[in-house]
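User: Can you help me understand a structure? I only have the sequence.
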Amino acid sequence: MSYYYKYVPHYSGEVNKPPEEPKAPNPWLAPAPAPAPAYVACQAAPAQCYYQIQAQPVYYAAAPVPEPVKHNFWYGSTKVEVDAQNAAIAQASGATKPVQLIPQGGTPSSQYYCRELDGSYTLRTVTEIMETLQPGHWQYANPGGYPYWIRTKAA
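Assistant: Let's start by predicting it. Here is the structure, written out as tokens:
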């Protein structure tokens, strides 16, 4: 005799009903049909004796599963490809062109060092630098990181 388990949720109203046996048993777990009985003679006693061989139940293995399809997965760009794409975008958008950096957060009367054409340094206000000391450019000092103006000769 076999026992079958049936899950019954509490809300279904089938709490106290006995479980039903399935309509068709699983063919993979069912034993093979028994072959016709075979008799074997033995010489255990002076007289011949015969006994019946019981067929052993045979259980079938599951059907072979086909090999999974090998997909070509696309994992994305490599680091080198992404760097090349970023460099192309930066070149196209002008991000690699030098721009004029102007110190922020100061007032028009804030003073900064200015390297004059003769190589000496003087203190000048932002207004004076931007209006009268052109051409030139801002640069940051390496050890301190403070901005200063470098005057250049007019072309």
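Now, to help you interpret it: The chain has a mean pLDDT of 75. Strands lie at 38-42, 49-53, 111-115, 121-125, 136-140, 147-151. Let me know which part you'd like to focus on.
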